């Protein structure tokens, strides 16, 4: 069924956030927070993040909330704790996902993900499949509500592995927890609580080992083939900009400026990871994090959040993550925005509670100051776009209040390109637009390409710092990106080292391709600097295909022209051989021409060629097989012409012959092995022959007893080339009838199909497959059209030779005996064969007539005349036409006359007479022929009980019957259930009740007897008029009766009464046929008396209560008088005077404070008063007490009266 979300009640916060906020903030801090943001708004944002429902994220409000949490005491509120982790070092970079968003509107992030139920992972599956993964426990503080609570969970990327059976919290309904997960893996849990309390909820989860950024970089590729539909959908959804890129670019000037600057660093060959990394580096170099809340202003209403951030030059995590997503989307990289928490707080610290002697108890605390934003990017790892989502920490290094102010950095090198033996002077210049010193700043110089720390230098008063680098044998040939960095400010320059280079081809796998199987191979090798003895990164090599033993290059042999070495200097390229490369023997070589990353840094200066590895391109040869049987060529691939097919008898031979032609030059192919197969007879090989100099091969095929009659498919085969033909075994085909229905008959009155089963075989019992049969029915003329379903009949299992006819005849068919015949008309359906064909060979047709005829009859064509003592039966008996009545010892005479299909029964036909209700056979009679009359004289001693008996007469086993009724008039027993309403007490005008019992004779319940219910007072005077409800009914088939009384009338006096059930001899049977009401037709009888107590009710009426001199609403004051007053009446509202009433004042838990017994006045009124004294000390207000007035008839000497109690409100 479709998933339906729970109806959300007020979602729980991590404890009461506002209440917790007030604990952490001083009045001054609260006032300072209120200047920037309403505390309630802050609580609302936290609620939206935790309620398990991904709400739209207002970036302006969220960024202000971040400041309050990151820089204020509010951030000290605890979010969750983590237990059972391996080590704190493994947790430093952990990000805890909550919500993911895909649509950016300019001032909001919106999620279009759909939530559906998601399965927990079982404990056994964890150990079987993921046992190596660290399993952690999370503890979260919650404020719960009664009922279902939807709670967002912190999870690990990418899949929410929440372990089944380990969600626990106080007051949690057992087994109530269910998970939901949306399309972006945001996860929530539904928990049902029995009370509203602050609790700690724990659950267990684990995550997968995530690839490092180096791993992602190594696997990332550029999409260069037709993309998959999945990748196209991802790009369409996750590169969205409002409303599109062109409109956004032209309407947001600051975005336009930075997009153009960033575009200068991004190449068309950069894959998704490289683009994302360059975007992150650009944002971290150009923008800063505020050191205090005063430095930051969120985007004004109506401004695009990202464009505002770019204009201000400063932002929080949400700004960096939003800008990152917008820029990567602009460059075609699918990305999405994430909110959650990280293990590091804003100061770069991890808060851990350690237990040195018990490290298993170590706890990592996550507070609201750990709130964080990042992104996820989609990285293609296949050229068609297949890939993976990767977690991408955008603000890594941007957070923390100790970050330096923004500086600008430039760097250059006097050495740009050349051989070893020179010195490079690297000069960095640090500048700033702020009024800050640029002197004495330590600049770090790094060879970014090879990860070498080149050294540090301190800036002078002008912000200039320089170092000298020897271009010696330690420098690897090729381009080097040199980075100068101070804090978050950095820039780069480049130089290229010339020198010797070695290209090595290590493998080609496979070294031979067959185009009929695959065009692909893998070319693998490495590029090395023999002087520095290091591998060369990112070197571009050309993939060359040469004619074997020559230097003749094949133009554009592969779908990939070149390959780039990775960071280890290795290259591995999957290539497809282009279709224009002819088959033949080749060699593969790899050439280096001075390019890195496809750019000609040393083109024409540095060159090398690798060793060669042999490579062969093959393709299947195609041949034509000219196939003939006895010199008759096949019609294949056209449909076979039956007139061209060879007919053969068993004991004869066929000549199967082939001429083989090589299509490459249309020559006759000699010396090749031809195989001949018989497909129809089991796809078995008949024999083989080798083609002679004329390309001919042939065999003789003996047609024996195992060859099936009918058309036979044979074929000749050479390699993958096949040719087909048919021949005909012209031998008899037989219908083997296995079984048919016994008796073989069909009743038009009760249609049930008859069945015939048969096989289709030839004279040697070979099964004849893929055919069909017809069933025909005649009686001097053809009545086949009366059969249903119509012909033909197909095999029970398609392609088999077994047939199962289930047939009937249509209504209106004449009652008669019919001859059945099964016909085979020579039809064959080989449409499923490799050479499909449909044949009809009339000369192979045959038929089989069943040895027994089909009898069609109509059981309903039976008439039974029945009379009792000469009186014919009727559908309904009544007082004017009563059923016959007998006493035991008499004989009942039944007159029967039968016509079957308007004729007297034949010799051997029989009739039976039954006592239907008892299912007793009373007598039977076999007809001698010539008459259908018989009289049954049945002694009434055969009827075991009194009352109504239904007599049934049936002719043989035909469904037609006739029935009548007789009455056995004997005394019956009326038994009534002595227990009424459990205690035989009924409150008048208040309670309904039932009276039930049985009417029996000789232990058998008697149906259709009319019984009456009567009520008698203690003096045995009849008071039935006080019974409200039906007082007459008839017994059911088991003799059971039941009276349902609505109540006892209000004007009935309370006291002791008796119930009696009378049977006055009347009968009534609601059946078809049946008996209308006939009074006084049997011996009467009555039940014993059953006592019944009828009680009167009482009514307590609340008039009110008050205190004096104070008012109740002002509280309960010691010394005041407390008055309680009301009225007591009978259930018929007459007053109850001079009755004792007990009045109590109680605590809410039922503990007694005071009580008083007062008497009602002549009007039934009562008034109790109390003085409020020290016994009332624990209650202060009316709402703290309850008033209970109680009436007990016992102390008032009243019988048959109900107790009563009323709580005053």
TrEMBL record:
<dbReference type="InterPro" id="IPR038765">
    <property type="entry name" value="Papain-like_cys_pep_sf"/>
</dbReference>
<dbReference type="Pfam" id="PF01841">
    <property type="entry name" value="Transglut_core"/>
</dbReference>
<dbReference type="InterPro" id="IPR038076">
    <property type="entry name" value="MgtE_N_sf"/>
</dbReference>
<dbReference type="InterPro" id="IPR002931">
    <property type="entry name" value="Transglutaminase-like"/>
</dbReference>
<protein>
    <recommendedName>
        <fullName>Transglutaminase-like domain-containing protein</fullName>
    </recommendedName>
</protein>
<feature type="domain" description="Transglutaminase-like">
    <location>
        <begin position="276"/>
        <end position="393"/>
    </location>
</feature>
<dbReference type="InterPro" id="IPR052901">
    <property type="entry name" value="Bact_TGase-like"/>
</dbReference>
């Amino acid at each position: 069924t479709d998933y339906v979300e729970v109806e959300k009640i007020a979602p729980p916060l991590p404890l009461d956030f506002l209440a917790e906020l007030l604990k952490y903030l001083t009045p001054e801090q609260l006032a300072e927070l209120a200047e920037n943001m309403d505390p309630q708004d802050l609580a609302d944002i936290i609620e939206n993040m935790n309620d398990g429902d991904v709400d739209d994220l207002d970036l302006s409000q969220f960024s202000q909330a971040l400041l309050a949490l990151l820089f204020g005491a509010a951030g000290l509120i605890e979010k969750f704790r983590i237990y059972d982790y391996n080590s704190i070092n493994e947790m430093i970079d952990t990000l805890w996902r909550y919500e993911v968003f895909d649509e950016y509107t300019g001032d909001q992030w919106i999620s279009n993900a759909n939530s559906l139920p998601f399965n927990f992972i079982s404990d056994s599956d964890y150990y079987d499949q993921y046992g190596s993964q660290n399993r952690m426990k999370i503890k979260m503080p919650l404020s719960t509500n009664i009922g279902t609570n939807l709670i967002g969970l912190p999870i690990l990327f990418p899949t929410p592995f929440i372990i089944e059976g380990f969600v626990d919290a106080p007051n949690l309904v057992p087994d109530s927890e269910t998970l939901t997960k949306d399309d972006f893996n945001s996860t929530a849990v539904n928990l049902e609580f029995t009370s509203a309390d602050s609790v700690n909820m724990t659950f267990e989860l684990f995550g997968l080992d995530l690839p490092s950024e180096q791993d992602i970089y190594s696997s990332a590729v550029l999409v260069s083939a037709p993309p998959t539909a999945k990748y196209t959908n991802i790009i369409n959804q996750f590169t969205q900009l409002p409303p599109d890129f062109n409109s956004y670019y032209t309407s947001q000037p600051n975005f336009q400026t930075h997009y153009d600057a960033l575009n200068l660093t991004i190449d068309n060959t950069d894959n998704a990871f490289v683009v994302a990394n360059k975007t992150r580096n650009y944002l971290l170099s150009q923008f800063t994090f505020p050191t205090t809340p005063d430095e930051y202003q969120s985007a004004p209403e109506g401004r695009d959040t990202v464009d505002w951030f770019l204009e201000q030059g400063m932002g929080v995590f949400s700004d960096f993550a939003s800008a990152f997503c917008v820029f990567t989307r602009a460059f075609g990289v699918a990305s999405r925005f994430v909110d959650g928490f990280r293990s590091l707080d804003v100061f770069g610290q991890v808060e851990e509670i350690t237990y040195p002697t018990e490290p298993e108890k170590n706890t990592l605390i996550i507070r609201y100051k750990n709130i964080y934003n990042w992104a996820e990017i989609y990285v293609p790892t296949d050229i068609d776009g297949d890939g993976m989502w990767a977690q991408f920490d955008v603000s890594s290094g941007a957070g923390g209040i100790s970050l330096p102010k923004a500086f600008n950095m430039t760097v250059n090198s006097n050495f740009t390109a050349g051989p070893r033996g020179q010195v490079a002077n690297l000069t960095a210049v640090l500048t700033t637009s702020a009024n800050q010193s640029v002197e004495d700043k330590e600049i770090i110089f790094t060879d970014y390409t090879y990860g070498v720390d080149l050294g540090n230098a301190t800036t002078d008063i002008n912000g200039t710092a320089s170092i000298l680098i020897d271009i010696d044998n330690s420098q690897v040939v090729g381009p080097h990106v040199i980075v100068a960095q101070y804090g978050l400010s950095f820039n780069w320059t480049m130089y290229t080292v010339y020198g010797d280079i070695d290209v090595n081809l290590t493998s080609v796998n496979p070294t031979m391709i067959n185009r009929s199987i695959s065009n692909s191979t893998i070319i693998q090798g490495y590029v090395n600097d023999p002087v520095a003895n290091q591998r060369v990164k990112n070197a571009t090599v050309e993939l060359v295909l040469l004619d074997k033993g020559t230097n003749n290059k094949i133009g554009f042999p592969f779908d990939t022209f070149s390959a780039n070495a990775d960071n280890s200097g290795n290259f591995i390229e999957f290539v497809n051989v282009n279709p224009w490369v002819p088959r033949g023997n080749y060699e593969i070589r790899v050439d280096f021409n001075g390019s890195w990353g496809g750019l000609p840094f040393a083109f024409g200066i540095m060159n090398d060629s690798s060793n060669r590895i042999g490579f062969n391109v093959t393709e299947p040869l195609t041949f034509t097989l000219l196939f003939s049987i006895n010199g008759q060529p096949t019609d294949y691939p056209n449909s076979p012409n039956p007139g061209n097919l060879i007919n053969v008898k068993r004991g004869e031979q066929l000549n199967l012959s082939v001429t083989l032609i090589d299509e490459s030059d249309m020559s006759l192919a000699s010396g090749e092995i031809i195989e001949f197969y018989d497909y129809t007879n089991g796809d078995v090989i008949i024999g083989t022959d080798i083609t002679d100099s004329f390309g001919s091969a042939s065999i003789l095929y003996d047609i024996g007893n195992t060859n099936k009659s009918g058309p036979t498919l044979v074929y000749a085969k050479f390699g993958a080339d096949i040719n087909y033909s048919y021949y005909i075994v012209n031998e008899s085909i037989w219908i083997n009838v296995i079984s048919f229905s016994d008796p073989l008959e069909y009743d038009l009155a009760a249609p049930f199909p008859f069945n015939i089963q048969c096989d289709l075989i030839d004279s040697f019992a070979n099964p004849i497959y893929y055919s069909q049969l017809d069933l025909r029915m005649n009686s001097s003329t053809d009545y086949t059209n009366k059969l249903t379903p119509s012909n033909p009949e197909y095999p029970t299992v398609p392609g088999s030779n077994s047939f199962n006819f289930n047939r009937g005849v249509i209504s209106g068919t004449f009652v008669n005996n019919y001859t059945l015949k099964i016909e085979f008309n020579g039809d064959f359906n080989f449409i499923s064969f490799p050479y499909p064909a449909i044949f009809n060979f009339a000369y192979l047709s045959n038929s089989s007539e069943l040895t027994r005829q089909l009898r069609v009859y109509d059981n309903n064509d039976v008439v039974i005349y029945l009379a009792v003592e000469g009186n014919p039966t009727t559908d309904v008996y009544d007082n004017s036409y009563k059923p016959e009545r007998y006493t035991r010892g008499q004989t009942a005479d039944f007159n029967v006359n039968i016509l079957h299909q308007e004729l007297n029964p034949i010799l051997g036909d029989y009739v039976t007479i039954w006592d239907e209700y008892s299912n007793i056979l009373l007598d039977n009679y076999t007809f001698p022929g010539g008459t259908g009359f018989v009289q049954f004289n049945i002694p009434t001693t055969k009827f075991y009980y009194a009352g109504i008996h239904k007599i049934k007469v049936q002719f043989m086993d035909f469904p037609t019957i006739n029935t009548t009724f007789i009455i056995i008039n004997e005394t019956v027993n009326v038994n009534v259930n002595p227990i009424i309403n459990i205690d035989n007490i009924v409150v008048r005008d208040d309670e309904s009740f039932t009276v039930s019992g049985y009417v029996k004779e000789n232990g058998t319940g008697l149906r259709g007897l009319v019984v009456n219910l009567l009520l008698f007072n203690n003096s045995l005077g009849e008071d039935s008029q006080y019974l409200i409800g039906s007082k007459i009914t008839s017994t059911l088939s088991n003799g059971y009766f039941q009276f349902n009384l609505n109540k006892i009338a209000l004007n009935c006096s309370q006291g002791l009464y008796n119930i009696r059930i009378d049977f006055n001899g009347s009968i009534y049977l609601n059946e078809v046929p049946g008996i209308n009401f006939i009074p006084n037709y049997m011996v009467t009888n009555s039940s014993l008396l059953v006592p019944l107590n009828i009680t009167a009710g009482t009514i307590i009426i609340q008039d009110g209560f008050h205190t004096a001199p104070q008012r109740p609403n002002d509280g309960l004051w010691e010394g005041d008088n407390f008055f309680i007053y009301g009225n007591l009446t009978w259930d018929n509202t007459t007053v109850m005077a001079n009755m004792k009433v007990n009045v109590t004042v109680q605590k809410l838990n039922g503990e007694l404070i005071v009580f008083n017994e007062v008497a009602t006045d002549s009007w039934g009124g009562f008034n109790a008063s109390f003085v409020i004294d020290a016994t009332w000390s624990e209650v202060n207000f009316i709402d703290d007490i309850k008033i209970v007035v109680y009436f007990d008839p016992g102390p008032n000497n009243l019988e048959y009266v109900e107790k009563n109690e009323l709580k005053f409100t």
